[in-house]
């Protein structure tokens, strides 16, 4: 298998419109560009990219943004280029445009993850060809139409064709077919095998019963009035006045959203940016004053103004869960998702390791 024309990886790797727009803006792949979406059925397993805080202003590397078509790896003779690598890097780290590059401390791991992913895709594609797998014409046509709908107009699609397929419909078909073959083989060898029956899920539940024991917990939103340390009597009096105003406004609310707006306006703690929502908190982690008030409330009630030392709190009770064991029916959705995710990762790694074992892979 020789060097490929253009960039078939694009079809498989660009999982969403936003990531492609980031690639285009940062690398300048197209003059007048479109965004296109082909959702892959697999994701990188070797890296997890998180956006660094804008305030940290990390040093960045722009070296990986310079796309020249330079070969970066050979997989059984098939050449993958820095363009293929860049497409995957922007899937892993879609914030590259914002940060004008890849943060240097994240670059090695991201590059490794992107490299593993393009090698994985190429090995899967070659295996699909070895098995003589084909894509039904109806499946190809449905995917083609879906793909083209992602472009805002014909001009944008033409720009994409010129850049990624050298204007060739034959090349477009080859690349899209490649993506569909990768998807089909991964579905067959990974996704389908990762699915569990209800009986299998129940066995996991029964074998791990203690995992589903839960402590008594409360879900709530809060408004906290927190005067500064060593506040004067005058400041404390002002804080109490502010707390009373917040309580009056909170008492008038009738919904989660309304209470959240009051929390955003009055509260001094970090939860105010999230509607004051603390989600579920175990009883043992809450102050006695809070617990005493919560036990006398119904879901949706707003508490009285509660002094906690020099601070004040007001909360809306969203749920009170008694101590006990989560039933199988309650646990099943999340348990299934967790177990099948773990199986998917194991099966994907098994597939990758098996294909890589006898492959000739040369990183350049």
Description:
The chain is α+β, with helices and mostly antiparallel strands. The chain has three domains: 9-195 and 344-363, Orthogonal Bundle (Triger factor/SurA peptide-binding fold); 198-210 and 325-339, no CATH class; 216-322, Chitinase A, domain 3. The chain is 49% helix and 13% strand. It is built from twelve helices and eleven strands. A four-stranded antiparallel sheet has the order 7-6-9-8, with helices on both faces. It has a three-stranded antiparallel sheet with strand order 3-2-11. The chain is elongated and about 75 Å long.
Strand content: 5-15%
Question: How many strands, which pairing sense, and closed or not: the largest β-sheet?
Answer: 4 strands, antiparallel
CATH domain class of the largest domain: Mainly Alpha
- The helix tally amounts to 12
| Architecture per CATH nomenclature, i.e. the level-2 architecture of the largest domain | Orthogonal Bundle
Q: In order across it, which strands form the biggest sheet?
A: 7-6-9-8
Give the overall shape: elongated
Indicate the CATH topology of the largest domain: Triger factor/SurA peptide-binding fold
Please give the alpha-carbon distance between the first and last residues: 17 Å
**Overall mean confidence score, pLDDT:** 82
Radius of gyration: 27 Å
Order of helices and strands: HHEEEHEHHHHHEEHHEHEEEHE
The stretches of 5 or more residues where confidence is low (pLDDT under 50) are 3-58
How many distinct beta strands? 11
Helix content: 40-55%
**Number of domain units:** 3
Query: Class by helix and strand content?
Result: alpha+beta
